[in-house]
Input
Amino acid sequence: MERAIVPPVPDAAQAPAPVLEIRDYTLGYNTPAGRFEALKSIDLQVWRGPTLGLVGESGSGKTSLAWAIMRYLPENAVENSGTIELSGENLRAKSVPEILAIRGRRISMVFQDPSTSLNPAIRLGDQIAEVLVQHRGLTLKEARGEGEALLARTGITRPADMMLRYPHEASGGEKQRVVIATAFACNPELIIFDEPTTALDIITARQILELFGRLRDETGVTALYISHDLGLVSRIAQDVAVIHDGVIVERGSCASIFKAPRQPYTKALLAAVPRPDLRIAPPAPDASAGDLLSVEDVSVNYGNAPALLRFLSPPRADAYGARSVSLGVRPGEILGIVGESGSGKSTLAKVLVGLQTFEGRLSFGGRAFTSRRMIDRDYRRAVQIVFQHPDASLNPRQRIGTILSRPLRLYDLVPPADIAARVRALLEEVLLDADFAARYPHQLSGGEKQRVAIARAFAAEPSLVICDEITSSLDVSVQASVARLLIELQRRTGTACIFITHDLNLVRQLAHRIAVMQHGKLVDLFDIADVTSDARDAYTRSLLAAVPIPFDAETDPVTSEAGAGNMP
Output
């Protein structure tokens, strides 16, 4: 087992005790298949001042460690050994009432998805006030006033209005600011950030990181920042610990870990980080070949009520998901579409696959479509889509073999007797064993489910595959393997791809051209070689400036070879 490389602990006579100290901590879960050891002999200290980043793949034990610190473990958890101390007090020895008094007051946590950490039935202001009343003893009136001040501190421009909203009435970035305001409300000794920007686009993520950095500097709070995104960790943390299979395998300053990693696993994680200078796309197609698919002056107005409902509701203001968009995709091309949340990327994708009514003109294969109703079976077979969340796009009641056989039967692509063999071949093409055909989606990991979704799209033998944020919910190593898989399939089949993402590092590795959308409009379109041109739109430049890069691509000693072959 790999052991941690830990920097020298500060001399106890010269330095204060750590705010959080974990010694020889082991955690397991009792499952029907037996005991699963999630954390193994963890030794970790978080000192006042520098933020500690904890990085590792999904399943490495990061979130289990966070829940153990918060004393919020499930009933099947078994703590085998070790101590968890907050400012010298052993949290494992505390009673439930004592933990309830500590949680939220002395330790707080910012979760990955603010939508799941806020009560949808309670106004945002009341949720902040509840914490202030319970832990700081304020009256309700005082708590609401303090809540407004906390929201203003996070950069929300109209905090009084935000206090009256419900969670569904706030954007993702606004909700995360509310959660951060709540976490800082009681001036805790320790705040745990568990993937706080994963559900946010890159511009909003950068704003949240800048907010955290400012509040940390103002309050001097100690922070443990958990993430699989090494780029973000490099921006927010001064020290980093790497966890793998429940073991801390390496620890040091960000500079030392990113510039000179010593453990093979750390090298593999860094090798999987998307780097614009390491292109993996096939050669660009001939631009003179014309467009495979094009849209001309396409708009989507969500403010238009369906005809049958117009007499029941008053006219609504225009709300454009896309406005006068015109672009084309060439045969065999990988076109990247980027932009922050709400820019219209997914709206355009739904138009292209016939899932969204639209105005304008869509051309494909010598045919023109001016409405969704005109899109037929042949078009739907030729233009396929892979959605962001495979859990929402794969039928949980069907086995993988049934899911993959559906397009084969629907479009009569192979004789019935050959369907099983073709399903096995599809699984092999996406690097899954043939026995996956007998499994259900819940028996697969996130990366495996996304491979199945990709296989289903390519099963229809399409001319174009649209990938809508297919790697955003995956950790960095799985993201790298899925990206390489997609490029290999695209190279082998010649299928054109539209790759929708907010990760500019990744899209610069994959795409031949990049389209940039903002507020439903196409604001930039350029060849990948022109990404840094002075002709770029100001919004494009702001996106590029927001991209986190954990090391200098030109001077970093970790080459693409280091660890690349070790990733799945």
